[in-house]
């Protein structure tokens, strides 16, 4: 299944399921219709409890929530002529598939060619840092470039995975059992801010610096996350091209490692690192009007437009 968030008429974002390239089903609304069909009392309350509109609460519902969601979507599609739970993608606003996770954990220096281009040593342990939830933005949002803050705005194409259930000290061989699904990320980075102290955080977590999407694909549709093509273009110029088989620390390793440090919780986002070709290595930084597209096979593409806010 492919999850996203959507909004109509500027209402708050809520969970939706993409069923083809241009059709979204709201699982909660569809389930209300299914319950009403069988004259179930308190249909709204039951649907709110079992199929929450909040993505993280939905993820935390586990297999039961997924099962009911599939039933609700099937019902809506079979009754498409009378269902009010189906939307055309072109008629709604699309947000990030996960909105306010408890944790956003990022991994640096995780592709060999990126490590070499940054002139760093190969890490013995994963290099981790964090972003805050205010960094999250939608798959086609603009990014506000404040030139008084940074002159070296950079891009990083990344595969992100989302945790599906709580876990601590998770064994390597069980790691994928704790993954809910995968999405596309761009770890937009202010390199000059990143480097002005030994801690990277200030250059990594600017508002809207984590575009995500276009969907969160459940793990059953991506049985092997270590064979996915990943690419990034700036104004249609290819800058990054690799495959997740090149990860130094793969998804299993990261789940095992991170869960040994912190308890992983439903909705937590983990960025797995970026391949070679970043702007820093080429002295090519993002400018006003640039279009940055990140694409991963089996998931889709996101595109962010850079918009300078205070031109000097």
Order of helices and strands: EEEHHHHEEEHEEEEEEEHHEEEHEHEE
CATH class of the largest domain: Alpha Beta
Radius of gyration from the CA trace? 20 Å
Query: What's the story with the biggest beta sheet?
Result: 12 strands, mixed
> Helix segment count?
9
Q: Which stretches are low in confidence, meaning pLDDT under 50 for 5 or more residues running?
A: none
Briefly note the structural class of the backbone: alpha+beta
Q: Quickly count the domains.
A: 2
For CATH, the homologous superfamily of the largest domain is named as: Fumarylacetoacetase-like, C-terminal domain
Query: What global shape is seen?
Result: globular
Looking at CATH, which topology of the largest domain would you report? Fumarylacetoacetate hydrolase, domain 2
What does it look like?
- The protein folds into 2 domains: 2-94, Fumarylacetoacetase, N-terminal domain (SH3 type barrels); 96-308, Fumarylacetoacetate hydrolase, domain 2 (Alpha-Beta Complex), CATH 3.90.850.
- It has 312 residues and is α+β, with helices and mostly antiparallel strands.
- Strand 18 (291-296) and strand 19 (300-308) form a beta hairpin.
- The chain is built from 9 helices and 19 strands.
- Strands 1, 2, 3, 4, 5, 6, 7, 8, 11, 12, 14 and 17 form a 12-stranded mixed sheet that branches. The protein has a 5-stranded mixed sheet with strand order 9-19-18-15-16, with no helix packed on it.
- The termini are far apart.
- 45% of the residues are buried.
């Amino acid at each position: 299944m492919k999850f996203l968030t959507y909004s109509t008429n500027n209402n708050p974002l809520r969970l939706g399921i993409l069923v083809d390239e241009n059709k979204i089903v709201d699982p909660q609304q569809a389930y209300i219709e299914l319950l009403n069909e069988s004259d179930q009392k308190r249909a709204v309350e039951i649907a709110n409890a079992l199929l929450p509109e909040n993505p993280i609460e939905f993820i935390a519902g586990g297999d039961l929530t997924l099962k009911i969601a599939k039933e609700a979507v099937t019902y809506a599609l079979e009754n498409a002529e009378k269902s009010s739970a189906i939307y055309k993608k072109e008629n709604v606003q699309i947000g990030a598939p996960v909105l306010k996770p408890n944790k956003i954990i990022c991994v640096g220096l995780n592709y060999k060619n990126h490590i070499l281009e940054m002139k760093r040593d190969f890490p013995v342990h994963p290099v981790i840092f964090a972003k805050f939830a205010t960094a999250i933005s939608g798959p086609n949002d603009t990014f506000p470039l404040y030139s008084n803050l940074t002159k070296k705005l950079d891009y990083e194409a990344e595969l992100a995975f989302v945790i599906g259930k709580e876990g601590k000290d998770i064994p390597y061989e069980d790691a994928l059992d704790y993954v809910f699904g995968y999405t596309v990320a761009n770890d937009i980075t202010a390199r000059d801010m990143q480097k002005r102290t030994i801690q990277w955080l200030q250059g990594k977590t600017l508002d809207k610096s984590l575009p995500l999407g276009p969907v969160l694909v459940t793990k059953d549709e991506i049985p092997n996350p270590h064979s996915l093509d990943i690419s990034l273009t700036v104004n249609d110029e290819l800058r990054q091209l690799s495959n997740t088989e090149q990860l130094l620390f793969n998804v299993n390793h990261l789940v095992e490692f991170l869960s040994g440090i912190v308890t992983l919780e439903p909705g937590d986002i983990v960025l797995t690192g970026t391949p070679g070709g970043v702007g820093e290595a080429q002295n090519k930084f993002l400018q006003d009007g640039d279009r940055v597209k990140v694409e991963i096979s089996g998931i889709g593409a996101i595109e962010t437009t850079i918009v300078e806010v205070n031109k000097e």
